[in-house]
Structures
1.
Amino acid sequence: VTCHGESGKGDGMAAAGLNPKPRDYGDKAWQASAKDEDIGKAIVEGGPAIGKSPLMPPNPDLKDKPDVVKALVAKVRSFGK
């Protein structure tokens, strides 16, 4: 929420100070091109794990919680509907 915002538009309160800006999860083209596996990997390992911004931090505590990661991927997907 801090970066991507409550609506997933990339407009969270920390977004103003970030370069590059957080992704807008409502972007239909991005939603069509992104793979669930890559979204999950970015959530757990951070942006650099999939060739994206190092500003996307890792969440290694989720490595052994596949159901939580799956739910977070579903949340990201929900912004594209």
2.
Amino acid sequence: ALNALFQPALIASLPEIVPDTRQLQATNALMDVTTRVAMSIAPVLAGYLLALTSAENLFLFDALTFFVSASAIYAIGKKYRWQADKPKTKDIRADIIEGFKLIVAHRPLAWGIFVVIFWVNIIWSLFYIIGIPLFAQEVLGGDARTFGLIVTAYGVGNVIGGFVIGNVSTNRKLLMLFGGKVVLGFGFVILASATSLPMAMFGAFCASFGGPMTDITLLVIMQKELPTGTIGKTYSCRMIVYEIVGLIGLVAAPVFSDVIGR
């Protein structure tokens, strides 16, 4: 819940810290890559740590890392006190409505969020979160290590894709948004057709390039083409859509599995 406060503030602050468009895209990519690296190594790291300590201690360690993060932000100092140009409002409902209106009025953002993210991410959450573990066990005959290797391959591709997209400048942002999901789908087709672990890992690696293509492009559009004081609001609306479709995908997973079979 508190991440809903942190992430929009971070995204809205970056254009003020890095005003150059090319550097801003690279900065967004760097932030994106750090997240994807953490998500890639965390499952493997947790497996080793659980062999040495309890789950309770892992949660305690996780909590301590947030204090480190807060200290790093505090270290920026009092000189950085950027405020949005537009006065803040205490009406959360009005902020949400305004954010969605801005998205609807901006055609690339509207297509990117209401079409690309909404429909594709329903399938992604169903396939990646639910489908891949079942695929690793029932098709490849593997275990948690098999699943971990597929996720690692996906994470490695995410990281490489983030660095590549961070250094690619394009004016055809809408094409980049849709191209990212085409790449994602192509990789998942390879993964779903796999009869061996190496082939499944290759499919996951290919699919993973699609995430940075879409996510980084959306961030740059928001940060450079919307009024400064509205970036946080529109990103919050993007988060709302993303979390809703993820929930829909997870809820639909059992029904979908019953209809087509495992």
3.
Amino acid sequence: MKKILILNGPNLNLLGKREPGIYGARGFEDYYEELRACYAEKVELDYFQSNIEGELINKIHEVGFSWDGIVLNAGAYTHTSIALQD
């Protein structure tokens, strides 16, 4: 079974709470449970979120060579993090 990590960056812990008129009223945990249910027989999913760049990098180092893939939504770090881009 494939192992995939979903890694979310800054402020994504506020989904469903911050400006629900723009971003919706559902938190990421709701979406994560749907993904797990949909892919339970094919993929082992795990999820990690942090507002701290170093914690995201540590998580990538922790699973990066033993897992099959990482889906990264780096949030604001998409534009500012050389370390995550590397």
